[in-house]
Amino acid sequence: MAGVSERFVRFVEQGKPSLRLDTLLALLDTLGVELQLATRTSAAARALAAQPLAAQPLVTQPPPAVPPSAAPLEGNGPSAGEGQP
Name one GO molecular function term (predicted). Predict the structure, then answer.
């Protein structure tokens, strides 16, 4: 009915720590359940900060923005067929 396997439902029931979110949302929708996300409380944030660094998720920085002077201007590049052998 939800388009998921019985095995997946068992994983959810057993509390498997890693599941595909799209599949979980399809199952919850079929059951009429809504998943809501909220920010952590202060106590939870302090407990997370007290964990060793290896247990915390890796946060990556976004790539630096391209300065406008380095970006090609529309219409100034070679047109189709130009500059190609």
Answer: DNA binding
